[in-house]
Design brief:
This protein has two helices and nine strands, in the order βαββββββαββ. It is an alpha+beta fold and 168 residues long. It has one domain (2-162): START domain (Alpha-D-Glucose-1,6-Bisphosphate, Chain A, domain 4). Strands 1, 2, 3, 4, 5, 6, 7, 8 and 9 form a nine-stranded antiparallel β-sheet that branches. β6 (81-93) and β7 form a beta hairpin.
Length: 168
Amino acid sequence: MWVPRPPAQVFPFFAAAENLERLTPAWLSFRILTPLPIAMQEGTLIDYRIGVRGLPLRWRTRIARWEPPHAFVDEQLSGPYTLWHHTHTFTPSDGGTVLGDEVLLRPKGGPLAPLVMALFVRRDVDRIFRFRARVMAELFDADPSSAALEWSEGPAALPVSAAAPGTR
């Protein structure tokens, strides 16, 4: 999604972990368990509680990369997926910023994981990123239609790119 502000003005919102609650739909019952404020840097651990289809789950992520105001990566250490690797990018473009998300994910379920993906995960992740795009559009005076969501599948992981860099 393109927003009409430079990365240095946009990144601080994402650097404040508590803002993730604003970007997460209420139906996930998302709560940060790690005491706030959280000092964001490479290696920071963050614990959450979410509700997935009525089941309460704990989720722990680690900030694997921290490059303000250009990018950061969070990866799941424990939680609802066997793989979750989320790269956030903030790319200067046309006097503003392209906010990019690339998520490599693989649901739990062993040999049934592709079915779990098709029946539940893909739809839920799509809803989450569409909600997130609407909230970011409101926060940063952007056009929500500038967000793009693309899915691709591979043998090792199932990546989803939301608001891919260069998409406007």
